[in-house]
Each structure stands twice: as C-alpha cells, then as structure tokens.
Amino acid sequence: MMFFTRMALNGARRGAGRLLASPQLMHAAVLASFPPRPEGEASEGRVLWRVDVDGPHRWLYVLSPERPDLTAVVEQAGWPLAGTWETKPYDSLLDRVRLGGEYRFALVANPVRDVRVGQRRSKRLPHVTVAQQEQWLREKSVRAGFELLATDREVLDAAGAVRVDRVEELAVSERRDRVFRRGDGKVTLRTARFDGLLRVTDADAFRRVLCSGIGPAKGYGCGLLTVQRIAADA
C-alpha cells in the first residue's frame, strides 16, 4: 500500500529555511517520519518527496509505502499549534491506471548522462540545455510506460505563412544548481521541473514509476512524478 502526503511549510520559521536550503537535511527529516523497518522486511515502493512553490507558499509532498508521522517536520517548519498534514491512500489512483489513460503531470528531476572515461569507468554529467533535458525525459518515458502528448498548434514560418505543427505539451522550468553539504563533502545537483501532458503506453511500467520515481537523486527531492487525470481511462 502507498500513501500520498501533503504538508504546508511555514517559510517564516528558521527551520523551514534550513530544510529548504539543504536537500540533505530535508531528506533526513522526511525519513525520520517513519519508524525503523524490521531487518529483512522488504517494501514495494520507496519514499519520494518534492517541494513545490505556489506563489508565496511552499508545499512538501511525500509518497511512501507507509503512513508518515510528520510531527518532527511540523515542529521545525510548519504550524505546530494550527497546522498538520494530509495523508491519503495512493492505491486508488494506481488501481485506475489503464493503457491509454491521459494525465497532466509534474516532475522535478536530475537529468544526467553517463560518459565513458577510460576503459571501465564512467562519469555522470548533467544535461545543461532545455533541449537536452527534454530529450532526457523523452528517452526515460519509453521505459516508464508513457509518451508525451502533443497537440496541433498554428505557427508562423520564416516567410510569415501560417502552418500547423504538432507541439508537445511540455514546459521546463526552475532549472538550477542545488549545492549543499553531505558530511565533509559538497554535492551539486542540476535539477529541472517538467510540467506537461502524457498518455500511458504500459500500465504496469507506469505504476512502477509512480511508486519508485524517475532518474537519479531520488533522496534529494527528485524523481517524484505526480499526475492528475485529464481523460477517462480506456
């Protein structure tokens, strides 16, 4: 069973500033919201989280295989006397996933590529342009069980004539480098937010991605794919 949780962050609190500045600290705070799992006990999903900005507000989203207790996060970065969090079972959404289902989606990811160095080693490098990051998501979507949706749109060609092109409903924003400390070292992540429309091409693969995320740096607020259905499932 999976759970989806939403919590408002209080930007006026010093603790919120610390957590928002460091994915390492936010990751630790989120994981501390779950009791230790008995040794050897497996879980079908994993803990994913993301912080969304909505005007002056900050929202923490957590997807997890257990119901979280975010009391410690609220005490640091919420409204301990008035606010709390909202947790809903996620399985009803997973059960409704069907081939051909269409969704509006949001994803913050760490688009990277592996480059061979020498005979055996490889080095992970970030994609730096919007075009590279869009292509990264297209390639990921194949194994993730979805395709990006495109619509017809009128555009002007070089001669000023109107033509109709198929254009993907995809926006890339919030492109930035996140730099934070981990132990004695420093971590740099190049992240981007993707918003758009998709169609399910493999329901089982899509459900797995919803529960396990896309791309690397999942512990640092990347990879959580959130969706909202826009058309009746087939």
Q: What does this protein look like?
A:
By secondary structure, the protein is α+β, with helices and mostly antiparallel strands. Helix content is 23%, strand content 42%. It is built from six helices and 13 strands. It has helices at residues 14-21, 23-31, 71-77, 91-95, 130-144, 203-212, and strands at residues 3-9, 48-54, 57-64, 85-89, 102-109, 112-117, 121-126, 146-148, 150-156, 162-168, 170-182, 185-200, 225-229. The strands form four sheets. Strands 5, 8, 11, 12 and 13 form a five-stranded antiparallel beta sheet that branches. It has a four-stranded antiparallel beta sheet with strand order 2-3-1-4, with no helix packed on it. A two-stranded antiparallel sheet has the order 6-7. β9 (150-156) and β10 form a beta hairpin. The radius of gyration is 19 Å and the shape is globular. The two termini are 24 Å apart. 25% of the residues are buried. The mean pLDDT is 90.
| Total helical elements | 6
- Unreliable spans: none
Amino-to-carboxy terminus distance:
24 Å
**Annotation, overall tally of beta strands:** 13
- The coarse silhouette is globular
Radius of gyration: 19 Å
